[in-house]
Amino acid sequence: MICNDYIMDRRTFLRLTGVGAGGVLGALAGCGSGSGGQNTPVRDWSAENPLRIPPELRSYGPDHAYDLELRPGRTAFRADRQTPTWGVNGSYLGPTLRMQQGDHITVNVQNNLPEATTLHWHGMRLPAAADGGPHQPIPAIGRWQTGWEVVNAASTCWYHPHPHGATAQHVFRGVAGMIIIDDDDTRRLTLPRDYGVDDIPVILQDRSIDGGGQVQWETESNFGQLGTDMLVNGTMNAYLDVTTRRVRLRLLNASNARLYHVGFADGRHFALIAGDDGLLPAPVELDRVTLGPAERADIVVTCAPGERVIMDTAAGDERIDEGTYALMELRATATLKDTPDVPTRLGGAPPIVPPAGARVRHFELQGHDAINGQEMDLTRIDEVVPASAVEIWEVENDVYSHNFHIHGVSFTILDRDGEAPHAWETGRKDTVHVPEKSSVRLAVQFSSFVDPTLPYMYHCHILRHEDAGMMGQFLVVEPGTEAVTPRSIPAPSGSHSGHPS
Ligand code: C2O
Ligand code: CU
Ligand code: CU
Predict the structure, then answer these.
(1) 345 Cα–ligand 3 center, Å
(2) What pLDDT digit, counting tens, does each position of 455-478 carry?
(3) How far is the CA of 118 from the centre of ligand 2 (A)?
């Protein structure tokens, strides 16, 4: 059985990739690690639309300010068939915020949506008051100004709503965007850096879009949203014109539930250069990289003049990675601008090593809506952590696929069921995939921002699970004050409660 769900006849495949029969067999053998898309129909796929590149938004003025407007609009995913969507400074998704380590930035958020929401800066280390979680609601037709000093090193982060109980719906409608952070070190590295030319945002989302262009909501019991139409930066059937020999793809899984195994149809290798929380110490050569919701990976892929190759996601054996799908086609021009090799050292942060006697906390993900026997409660503080601590967090999962994200930290995966983590997840991270009946141990570096009354969140980033209550809250406090810190706080005023009607 052919495991690719999109159709490409063998001759085209040979011509486009320039490989012999052995290469084809090799590529096919490599593409279906699990169920091989058993439940998904064979899909016709051809590249039709140029990849949309979200505009880059740089800060302005002495305040390094950004103006973001959340607004309803209409978007055509299929030809000219419009559907209602939400976006940031546009009708779907938002601009890429470009920032610099060390900047003191200000963000002005105007919420022109018909509902209260929030805007969270996923992956950024900042004070809890600026985090944009459920405790910082922005009323409908309301405004929120926040700001912080950018302490993160060069990396790819993102922003998305985080209203209590309605995150899945708000992200699904289209409120999300990328954040790219630069620092002095990355400017010295010879990596592709021309935004939209050889340094490309690749925001992955799955939707089910009917022939009339309408987007289906709640397509899957338990996981909520799993679509069979793949959007890259909001583009269906996307192609990217490649004009340089090497191109950097900043992969961001902004899907509600889907797990991707990203690679290329011809099985070519690429260099993984960064994970969630920035550059790796050295590049890792791979032919697939797995990304659960909210995870990021920067890869550098090499193209030959004139070739075309499809980037795809391979099927796995969890329900959230059913089916092999084309994501987009890379189309190299007849002549390519030469680019330097990927440096052999990237200078990313080394793994976090927990000190002897580090505090260990245990989290059990239960069903689809609870952690350690409890559903999320905005007024309950689950954990209190001393500032700047390094702790070991053990996350155990009995049933269904989940993942685990912690706000405002950086972590290293120590092990998975006692074994070394996968090659693609050895860098510093903030979100980890946790398959059914497995456990992971994380070495977590907490930040130094203290606030005894405003918590950060930890949760499953499958958004339906997050909304259903698979989330908890922790405070970061002055070391020594843990025992006297109150374990209950007031609910935010003006917050959105429950599910949208
Ligand atoms: Cu992507 Cu709690 O966030
Ligand atoms: Cu987050
Ligand atoms: Cu989950």
Answers:
(1) 36
(2) 999 999 999 999 999 999 999 999
(3) 12
179 C-beta closer than 6 A to ligand 1: no
Which of 3.30.1360.20, 2.60.120.620, 2.60.40.420, 1.10.3080.10 would CATH assign to domain 56-186? 2.60.40.420
164 lines ligand 1 (CB under 6 A): no
Nearest residue (by CA) to ligand 1, atom 3, is 122
Contacts of 400 (CB under 8 A, 6+ apart): 222, 223, 319, 367, 368, 436
Which residues, at least 6 apart from 120, have a Cβ–Cβ distance to it below 8 Å?
A: 131, 132, 133, 159, 160, 161, 162, 407
What's the Cα-to-Cα distance from 431 to each of 123, 291, 434, rounded to whole Å? Answer: 9, 10, 10
- Find the 406 Cα to ligand 1 centroid distance in Å: 8
Q: List the 456-459 sheet strands across, edge first.
A: 383-386, 471-477, 456-459, 402-406, 431-434
Q: Give tens-digit pLDDT for 58-93.
A: 999 999 999 999 999 999 999 889 999 999 999 999
Atom from ligand 1 closest to the CA of residue 466: 2
Q: What angle do CA 50, 55, 58 make, to 5 degrees?
A: 155
* Domain residue limits, the chain: 56-186, 190-337, 360-484
For residue 435, give the ligand nearest its CA: 3
For residue 123, give the ligand nearest its CA: 2
pTM attached to this predicted model: 0.91
- Does ligand 1 have an atom closer than 6 angstroms to the CB of 78? no
